[in-house]
Amino acid sequence: MVIQRWQSVFLLIGAIAMGLFAFLGTVCIGVTDGMVCWHSLDCIPLFILNCATALVAFIDIFLFNNLKMQKRVAMIAAFMSLVSLALTVAAVMSLDQVVEAGTVAWRWTIGLPVVAVIFFIWANRRMRADERLLKSYDRIR
C-alpha cells in the first residue's frame, strides 16, 4: 500500500504563499508626492499573524502520523489565512493616506492568502482520501 503525500506538497505551497504575503508589499497608495507601498511589516500584529500562519502550515507537514490532527491544523491554517486577508484589507482601508488620496493600487500579492486557502483545502481533501484508503485496506484485512 502506497499513500501519496500530495498534502505535504499542498501544505508547503500554502506555507510559502503566506510567507511571501508576510514579506512582500501588498498595496501601493497614490499620494501627492508619489506612490507609497504598504506591507504587513508596517503593522506588526498582522506580520506576526502572517508568519504564524506560514509556520503552522509548515509544522502541519510533519504531523503525518496523526491524520486527524493534521486535517484540523490545515483547516486552522486556512482560517488564519482568511483572517489575515480580512485584517489586511481593513488595515489598508483605515490608513489616513487612503482616506485623503482615495487611490489604491492593489498588488498581485493580495491574492496570496486566497491561494494559500485553496491549497490548504486541497491538502485537507487529500488527507480525507488517504483516510478512506486506509479504511478500505483495514476492511480487506
UniProtKB/TrEMBL annotation:
<feature type="transmembrane region" description="Helical">
    <location>
        <begin position="105"/>
        <end position="123"/>
    </location>
</feature>
<keyword id="KW-1133">Transmembrane helix</keyword>
<feature type="transmembrane region" description="Helical">
    <location>
        <begin position="73"/>
        <end position="93"/>
    </location>
</feature>
<keyword id="KW-0472">Membrane</keyword>
<feature type="transmembrane region" description="Helical">
    <location>
        <begin position="9"/>
        <end position="32"/>
    </location>
</feature>
<protein>
    <recommendedName>
        <fullName>DUF4293 family protein</fullName>
    </recommendedName>
</protein>
<feature type="transmembrane region" description="Helical">
    <location>
        <begin position="44"/>
        <end position="64"/>
    </location>
</feature>
<dbReference type="Pfam" id="PF14126">
    <property type="entry name" value="DUF4293"/>
</dbReference>
<keyword id="KW-0812">Transmembrane</keyword>
<dbReference type="InterPro" id="IPR025635">
    <property type="entry name" value="DUF4293"/>
</dbReference>
